[in-house]
């Protein structure tokens, strides 16, 4: 399938590793001009080199702390300078700390808000002028399977990830006349470092080995295994592509069928 991404300008935030990096790799395979962004220049450089080795298409990189408004402005501006515009935005951010309601004070709530919701708002605000000027664009927000069913012990994530869905659904109506499509994708158990950390924490709480705890989690997934970053990224790339001409305002979970809510 031709996705219409060759030479398109794609900004993938929080992309030095994990789902962001996997998404950037798939966009690079399609011939897009990709910008990677994260807080760590060494990790960005390593990711860009790995993507170039696999695809022959080397991304640009920009250091960005997504909790810093000026960093986001500079990131989008630099992407437009290097690529000519911004056609596709993939919003992404690391997960907030795990824990129950009683352990988080106002500072932790504020940080999670800035990391996992306000950063998305700011990035969208910055790319819209470019997308409107060129007559369209695609925005894909990476959230969590908690957009469909809350995850135990992740109250900060549960709260702000669902906010992303409200933001996306509202914007899908506001931006439709500009030919800008926006969707949210929530990963379930995808084999990333973040999920491994959460599995380790859960295993310790239940006095299980890591392997025992992971096996328990796999047993509640109908497909019977964790997803791969590549499997997840392919969904991101389709929704962020110009073959997608009619899907907007949707919240899709990629979780092997594990969530029970609809």
Using only C-alpha atoms, the radius of gyration works out to 18 Å
Shape: globular
Percent of residues in helices comes to: 40-55%
SSE succession = EHEHEHEHEHEHHHE
How far apart lie the N and C ends?
29 Å
- Number of helix segments? 8
Spatial strand arrangement across the major sheet: 3-2-1-4-5-6-7
Summed over residues and divided by their number, the pLDDT gives a mean of 95
What's the total number of strands?
7
Unreliable residue runs? none
- Let me know the largest β-sheet: 7 strands, parallel
Range of strand content: 5-15%
Structural class: alpha/beta
How would you sum up this structure in a few lines?
With 262 residues, the chain is of the alpha/beta class. Helices cover 48% and strands 14% of the residues.
């Amino acid at each position: 399938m031709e996705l219409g991404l060759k030479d398109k300008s794609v900004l993938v935030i929080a992309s030095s590793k994990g789902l962001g990096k996997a998404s950037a790799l798939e966009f690079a395979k399609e011939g897009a001009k990709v910008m990677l962004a994260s807080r760590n220049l060494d990790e960005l450089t390593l990711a860009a080199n790995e993507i170039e080795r696999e695809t022959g298409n080397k991304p640009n990189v920009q250091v960005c702390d997504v909790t810093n408004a000026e960093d986001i402005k500079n990131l989008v501006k630099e992407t437009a300078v290097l690529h000519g515009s911004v056609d596709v935005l993939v919003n992404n951010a690391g997960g907030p700390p795990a824990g129950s309601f009683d352990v988080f004070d106002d500072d932790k709530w504020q940080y999670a808000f800035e990391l996992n919701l306000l950063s998305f708002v700011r990035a969208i605000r910055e790319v819209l002028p470019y997308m409107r000027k060129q007559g369209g664009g695609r925005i894909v927000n990476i959230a969590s399977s908690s957009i469909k069913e809350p995850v135990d012990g992740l109250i900060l994530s549960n709260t702000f990830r669902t906010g992303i869905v409200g933001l996306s659904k509202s914007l899908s109506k506001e931006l439709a006349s500009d030919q800008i499509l926006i969707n949210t994708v929530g990963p379930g158990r995808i084999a990333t470092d973040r999920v491994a950390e959460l599995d380790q924490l859960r295993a310790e709480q239940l006095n299980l080995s890591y392997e025992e705890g992971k096996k328990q989690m796999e047993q509640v997934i109908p497909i019977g295994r964790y997803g791969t970053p590549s499997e997840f990224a392919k969904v991101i790339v389709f929704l962020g592509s110009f073959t997608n001409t009619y899907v907007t305002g949707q919240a899709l979970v990629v979780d092997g069928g594990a969530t029970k809510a609809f």
